[in-house]
Amino acid sequence: MSNPQQLRYTKEHEWLSATDENGVATVGITEFAANALGDVVYAQLPAVGDTITAGETCGELESTKSVSDLFAPVTGDVVEANQDVVDDPSLVNSAPFEGGWLFKVKITDEPADLLTADAYTDFAG
Q1: How many CB atoms within 10 Å of residue 20?
Q2: What is the pLDDT of residues 87-123, one digit of tens each?
Q3: Biggest alpha carbon distance in the chain?
Q4: pTM for the whole structure
Q5: Alpha-carbon torsion 53, 18, 104, 87, what sign?
Q6: Residue burial 95-113, b: 16+ Cβ < 10 Å; e: rest
C-alpha cells in the first residue's frame, strides 16, 4: 500500500491535500481505511455550506461490513461534495486517492497533529 507523499493524514484514516490558492483542500479516506471497510455501498457526505470541525464527525460511509463515521481532518467550510461518490460509493474502494475523494473544504484552522505519509504508514502498519 502506497500513501501519496504530498498528502497529510489523520489517525482516523482520512487524507488531506495541500491547499490551493483559495485555501481549499480535498479530503478522502485512505486505501487502508477503504480496505478495512470492505465494499462501500453508501456515502453520506457533508453538504456545501456546512462548517466542519477538526476531529468531529462530518458524515459516514456504509459498507457491506459496517458503518463508519467520517471525521473532519480540519476546521472549515465545505465548498464541494463529490457527487460521483454519492452516486457510486464503490469509487472510495477503487480509487481512494483519485476519483474517490469525498469533499473539498476551505480551511479556517488546521490541527498540528496531521501526519506525513511516512508517519501514517508507520501508524497504520
Answers
A1: 11
A2: 999 999 999 999 999 999 999 999 999 999 999 999 9
A3: 39
A4: 0.95
A5: negative
A6: bbbeebbbbbbbbeebeee
